[in-house]
Structures are given as structure tokens and as C-alpha cells.
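fyi for ur records
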Amino acid sequence: MQRIAMLYDASQAVLSTFELDEVLQRILNIARTYFHLENVAILLLDKEKQELYPKIQIGWDAGQDDVRLALGHGLSGIAAQQKRPVYASDVKLDSRYIASAVGTRSELAIPLMVRDEVVGVLDCQSENPNHFGDDTIDLLTIFSTQASIALQNAQLYSLERRRARQLEAINAIARETTAVLDIKELLAKVCSLIQQEFRVSHVSVLLREEEDLVLRAHCGELTSGIPDGGRLPAGAGLWGRALSMGKTVIENDASNAPDYIGLYHETGSRMCIPLVSFGQTLGVLVLDHMRTGGFRVEETQPLESVADICATAIQNAHYVDRVKQLAYLDGLTGIFNRRYFEMRMAEEIERARRFHGGMAVIMADIDQFKVLNDEFGHLLGDEVLRQVSSLFHQQVRKIDVVCRYGGEEFAIVLSQTDASYAAAIAEKLRKAVESWQFPGVPRQVTISVGTAAYPYHGTTRDELVKAADAGLYAAKQAGRNRSRMTPFLSKSSGHSAGI
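which gave:
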């Protein structure tokens, strides 16, 4: 009767709380105190890897906390595999024993089970051989049944609390993202919120651009291996697998995955979720954990909900960007207008000033355009403007900006460049137009071009435009179909230069 009363008290103790850590600690304390054990541990089952790992222990040697036992290995692994208690009365004579404490002489491993499903193992060790008699094994087996129920209840309670926190996090992210329409600010906020609310090591957003993915934003504690704005192949890596399959990909040992491509040096595990809005794939949400095994399958659904919210917010931000961009486009040619030119000039001058670099502006004017309009009509004149715009686009880099300044005049902002490169581009544009056969125009169309460079011709927008206009005027005065740059005093060599 005393043992039954003791078992009742022990069962009541472990079933009286839903806090997982407290349940685990009580199971250990009861097993150690009631059954006079030196070493006790609870190993939980990693279902995905089919391995046991120590969740909590008392009495094990230092360094044993990281051990992982495959099912069928060691007494605990055999107990979990066979779903029955396994006992070694003298571990020195038992080849199944895997040491966790030097002084151990006998070991009893009892599976923790709920509805015929193993959730873990209660591992009991003693420094005395033959420590566990049949009565003790029976009592510990009955106790482990109550401990299993308590453990399962605590895990369910923990899962429900985690889900409640995740729902709160999803709602918080939804509220925050709907209030932000600037794409750069939105992506930064998305990464920060997910990293904070879901406790991952790093969050990245890769967005599609042509055939590549571009790192548009990231936030976290890992060391980046590529710069912001870096391009990555859309068909490679774990993100490529996620895009091709159209679903979430988890790699809990990322470095050993054959298609793994590193973004961050310390990544142990990775989750990639496609960002899809209204059937359009915008990119990939990439989550990195510093440790291996950082992601559980049950976490997929809430994170996919977050990805859907983010995709919709990104699509909305793109739409707002397009609407804004329309205000900066010329209706006839489809290129940027003067308003955008002035804004971009200010940005490039500030960039050049901050990083001690260079930039340039080109002003180009179609020669005798009024005569062409009068002779061949405005419809043909409009087509000439469109084709000149297209020619300019083909001759400059993607980072450069072609604008219609007004009438038949164009302005081109050349980013991160110097005077000699700008002069070469001006001449390249002139030759491209000169050699082009414009449909419906029986005579040659030419342009005159003026160029100015920061900081040699000025350090403000007005100074640079004035200098480029002066070059354009000089080209006209010299007979048209020419490119000219106003002379300037070279700051590096101290001599005059000009074209």
C-alpha cells in the first residue's frame, strides 16, 4: 500500500502543471528521490530524424548533453524502437550499453508512450549493479505512463501557447505591412518583424528581376556573404527548389544539402517560402537558423501565412510604385520626364558628393526638328522622338537614366562616371542617331550634344545643366551634328581640358 500511495502522489505531482519545463523537472526529481537513483534523464524523440536527444538530465557526465541516439542504439534507443522497458543489470557485461556517466553499473530505459506512440524515454541509472528489481521496474513503468500523459499535455499546452503567439505575430505583421507602401521601407520592416516574432537567426527577401533573384532586404545576426542588391540565380539553391516546386522547402542541415548556396556564413538550417500573390511569383522569403534542426514542420503553416501577407503587401507596394512612376513618365516616348530628371540629378549629385565619386549629365537636341515637323508632319516627328529615345536607351547602361527634357531636347544622367566616359557616350549617341535610317524620313536626322561632369563643371544641378547647355549651344554654333564639352580646370592635373 505504501508503494501505491507513493505512486499516486508521484502521478498527482507530475499531472498538476502544464508547464513543460516544470513537468520534466518533476519527473526527474520524483524518479531520483522515490527510486534512489544517481542519474536520471528524459530523452525526447525527434520524429523527423528518428533520433533521441536528452531534454533534461541529472547526474550525467559533462559533454553528454549533446548526444543523439538513433532508434535501436543504446538501451534507450532499443526501448524506443521496441516500445518496452529494457534493463541491463550490469552494464559492464552488456554490449548494448552506451556510457553517459562513468559510475553507472545498472541502467533501465522505459519508453514514454501515448496511444502506442513513443514520445521519449525515461532513462534511469544506478551506481549499483542489479539495482532494479521486478517490483521497481513495474512501478517505474506505471509511473512512466502517467509521466507520458503529463508530458503530452504539457507539449500540447506549449504548442497552443506558441500558436497563440504566432497568431498575434501574424496579425501584428499584417497591421504593420498594410500601413507601409514604400517598397524599401516595407521590406526592411517585414524582415525585422519576422526575425523578432518568430525568433529565427536571419530573414531575407529575394525578389525576382528578369532571370535572377535580388537580395532586396535582410535582417538578423548572421554574417552576410553577399552585398545588398546582390544577384542570385533563380533556378539554383534551396530557393530555386522552392520556386520550381511551388512550395516551402526546409533543410535542417543546410550545408550538407547538395543544392545549398550560402547567403550567410553561420547558417545551420534554412527554410525557403515562395512569395506568391494572385498567382504571380514575386520571389522567396528565406529564413536561416544558426543551428541545425532549427525548423519544425509544424512551423510551416504560420510562416506561410506570413509569406502570403508579405507577398500581397509587396504587390501593393509595387503597384503604388508604378502609379508614382507614371507621374515621372513622358506620355509620348515612354521615357522619364523632366520632373524625374531633376529628382534623379539631385540623388546622383548627393551620391557623388558622399562617396567622393563622379557623375555627368548629357543634354541632346534633335537638329532642325521644327523643319522636320513642318516638312513631314507631326505624326512622323513624334515617331522620330520615340526612335531617338529608343536609340539612347540602347547605348547607355542600365544604371543611367534617359529623360525627355522638353520638346525635342533630351537629358541623360550618367551615374558613377567621369568626364572622359561621358564625352565618349555623347559621341556614341551622336553617331548612333546619325547612322540610323528613320522610316519615312528621306534625309538624315542628327543631334547636337553637350556634356558636363561633376565636380569639374559644377556641384549643383543648375550649374551642371547650365554647363551642359553651354556645350550643346557650342555644338549648334559649330554647325550641328557635334558633341561638345565646356572647358574646365582639371582638379587632378591642373590643366585645361575640353572637347
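The chain has a mean pLDDT of 86. thats all i got for now
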